[in-house]
Amino acid sequence: MLEDRPENKRRTFDSGTLSAAERVLAREKVPWRKRLLPFLGPAFIAAVAYIDPGNFATNIQGGAQLGYTLLWVIIVSNLMAMLVQILSAKLGIATGLNLAELCRNHFPRSLVWAMWVIMEIVAIATDLAEFVGAAVGLFLLFHIPLVIAGLLTAVITFLLLGLQRYGFRPLEAIITAMIGIVAVGYLIEIFLVKAEPAQIVSSLLIPRFGGREGVLLAVGILGATVMPHVIFLHSALTQGRIIVKDIDKLKRLFHFEVMDVAIAMTVAGAVNAAMLIMSASTFYAQGLHEIGTLEEAYRTLSPILGSAAGNIFAIALIAAGLSSSAVGTMAGQVVMQGFVHFKIPLWTRRLVTVLPSLAVLAWGLDPTRTLVISQVVLSFGLPFAVIPLVIFTANGKIMGPLVNRPLTSFLAVITILLILALNSFLLYSMVAGGD
User: Fold this and answer.
1) Which of 71, 154, 162, 380 has the fewest CB atoms below 10 angstroms from its CB?
2) 135: pLDDT confidence band, cut at 50, 70 and 90?
3) Where do the domains of the chain lie, and which CATH numbers do they carry?
């Protein structure tokens, strides 16, 4: 029997868009250009986490230190992320519950509390990356002291989160626009560099790490690409968005959400690949292997690619940081409410998560190194999100007609094993201390 659906959940859709979606699901004649539009949005919110400042840090360091070597990691990570986000969206559609709520309903209380604590640590690491990244972007572009830039980031994030009072559509539009800014910025920069196609193809076909530091960067790229907090958030974004009971409509709804994920994650994957290619073609090719910080990347881009390149980089970093910071706060709220059934005002949660980030800025810690380490923390938090997701989506009693096919579950298990293998390899390399 299908998991009981909380039909009284508040819908987060405006009436016009909801009406258009219902006409499409009922197979009424709708212009083809408008068929997909009502269903776009949740995956773009989730995709923000895949092009956040943590990605900037890991991709730039990976490209500067190892050239194109880790490009395959980005592609594999993006394919894994696409599968994971599809499962997350499907979970919310099929059950009307998000992943954290299902964990609370089906797991022992002690495990639920442990998972909540782990996910809160992940949320802090996530917010640290996003908040610090946006502050660094403001510092680079406007020469604002980092602490002041951090406070300004907090204010702007509050304003973005305030859009939720008008429903999710305005927030989705703003965040999608910010994704567009990042994508266009890197589209411009990728045309400015002289990439090496043969080396790019070689890096895609021959997986390698390039030493212990390469393993650390690879795990950081994985942690920055497959994000545990948006696995929880994506299921929440679809759980009450469009509620249907008819099996045919349910399957059609899932079909459109798959398209939403495919489009959003393809854009995110292309941006990540462009980041590493730009870094490899610019810094590694010039022998600048020690470009290890966002500030160095910004200052070095201008002499190499022209004065506009550095500013484009900073603008893209600000857009990524602000949008992902808002999304991270939303995800933290979902995690807290789902696991322990406790809700606090968004501004309170934002204030609590801002404090560690402001401390990092005030103490003068290296922002880029902090970003990379935060992504490694996220990678170690991934199994606690992905494993329950696979367990629930493979359960026919919970998922009904949208239960995973055997091949889907197999690929999901392979994803989990790959995450665990990379993390174990990282631990072994750090303990062994060799290459």
Assistant:
1) 162
2) confident
3) 15-432 (1.20.1740.10)
